[in-house]
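Tip: read the tokens left to right.
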């Protein structure tokens, strides 16, 4: 098997000119191409089990290191990947801490959830839909990726320089609710009257000579313009958006995070041209924000990381689960089968799932919340009503890729987003919404957010 070649494409070295910046921030940034050299099985659509045929666009991992006036450092990592499972990330956090001193609670590891990227796994045993050779290739890629992400942060943390931070929010108009009501229940199709979060927050990092070092932006929409028919490796709309921003601002690192997008798809979708079109729309809006009036962001930057104990549904009996396998909706059958197996082995099922949540408080200017899982847009409304609407940035698809996190209402209504944990060990209970909001509220308090 070929080894993965890695190249640091762009590292920013600047001389440390003694200029006082507004917020006394220091920052460094770097990016690394993570396009697999060997075609890998793609991730995101269960029906697609073959490796990619071509590379439409290289995929990237990028980082932004920030150091506040107290000398505390944090790292934000963005990746053009579908998701990083919790058995893959511990080695990344450990490596970062060992080689840069940046602690686990100060790392926000995120993924764009592109459905046209490689499948990640550390499990040598082939799954039912992959050959042994394909599985070995995925494992080798995943192991190399762990080291690449550590190396990325290490490189960026060596080149910090004074910067100013500012932020603002625009709009992404193609974000569409994907839970359509039909006489036979909720199905995955556009629902123009359903709720989504169309905000497009953007953090601008500017050097003392006025150059843009990094632009970190977010859209709360699945990276699924490209569908299961696509076999070209691609970052989807967010990959195109990042490429456009980097072309327009040479030397800048364009970084993409995804918000509470669990129930949102791009509209329209289905072709590479449409993915490019959505990418151009995002890039135009990011450019408008970067060139307009943004709000300065000051430090210091206290951070907290904890887990929300999210309630799972009370355990069902084996006959009840067998009935779901036989007569239930397709999206519940996989977990029902896994739970039957666990119970037949005499093992017990968990009663909660511990989902990582972080809150970073930038002075009195901005609260950045990092939620794990595929969080649906109702959590934006619930979080806003708990801790206020303003100076708030809610990122999801970070820390842990455990499955969808539906609201209590979505659990009552049913549909794909109620499918439960990816590990098969349970379905979320309606109580999980309150569990999550309570944790976010407590952590926002601990981080020092002033509630409106
Ligand atoms: Zn998803």
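Filled-in amino acids:
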């Amino acid at each position: 098997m070929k080894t993965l070649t890695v190249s640091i494409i762009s590292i920013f070295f600047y001389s440390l000119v003694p200029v006082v910046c507004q917020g006394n921030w220091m920052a460094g940034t770097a990016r690394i191409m993570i396009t697999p050299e060997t075609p890998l099985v793609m991730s995101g659509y269960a029906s697609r089990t073959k490796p990619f045929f071509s590379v439409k666009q290289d995929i990237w991992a990028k980082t932004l290191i920030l150091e506040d006036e107290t000398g505390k450092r944090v790292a934000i990592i963005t990746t053009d990947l579908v998701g990083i499972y919790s058995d893959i990330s511990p080695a990344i956090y450990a490596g970062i801490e060992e080689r840069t001193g940046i602690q686990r609670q100060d790392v926000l590891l995120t993924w764009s959830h592109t459905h046209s990227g490689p499948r990640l796994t550390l499990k040598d045993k082939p799954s039912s839909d992959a050959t042994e050779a394909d599985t070995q290739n995925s494992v080798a890629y995943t192991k190399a990726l762990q080291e690449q992400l550590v190396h990325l942060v290490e490189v960026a943390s060596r080149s910090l320089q004074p910067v100013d931070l500012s932020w603002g929010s625009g709009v992404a108009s193609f974000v569409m609710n994907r839970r359509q009501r039909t006489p036979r229940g909720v199905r995955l199709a556009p629902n123009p009257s359903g709720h989504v979060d169309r905000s497009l927050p953007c953090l601008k990092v500017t050097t003392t000579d006025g150059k843009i070092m990094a632009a970190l932006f977010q859209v709360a929409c699945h990276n699924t313009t490209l569908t299961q028919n696509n076999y070209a490796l691609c970052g989807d709309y967010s990959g195109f958006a990042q490429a456009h921003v980097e072309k327009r601002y040479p030397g800048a690192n364009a970084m993409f995070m995804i918000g509470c997008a669990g129930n949102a798809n791009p509209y329209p979708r289905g072709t590479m041209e449409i993915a490019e079109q959505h990418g151009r729309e995002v890039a135009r809006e990011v450019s408008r924000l970067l060139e307009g009036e943004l709000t300065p962001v000051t430090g210091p930057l206290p951070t907290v990381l904890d887990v929300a104990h999210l309630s799972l549904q009370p355990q069902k009996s084996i006959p009840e689960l067998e009935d779901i396998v036989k007569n239930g909706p397709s999206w519940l059958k996989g977990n029902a089968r896994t739970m039957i197996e666990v119970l037949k082995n005499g093992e017990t099922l968990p009663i909660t799932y511990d989902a990582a949540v972080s809150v970073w408080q930038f002075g009195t200017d901005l609260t950045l919340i990092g939620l794990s899982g595929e969080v649906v847009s109702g959590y934006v409304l619930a979080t806003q009503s708990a801790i206020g609407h303003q100076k708030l940035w809610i990122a999801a698809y970070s820390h842990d890729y455990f499955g969808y996190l539906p609201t209590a209402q979505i659990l009552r209504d049913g549909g794909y987003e109620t499918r439960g944990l990816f590990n098969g060990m349970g379905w979320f209970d309606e109580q999980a919404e309150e569990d999550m909001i309570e944790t976010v509220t407590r952590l926002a308090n601990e981080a020092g957010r002033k509630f409106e």
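Residues 8-297 form one domain. The mean pLDDT is 94.
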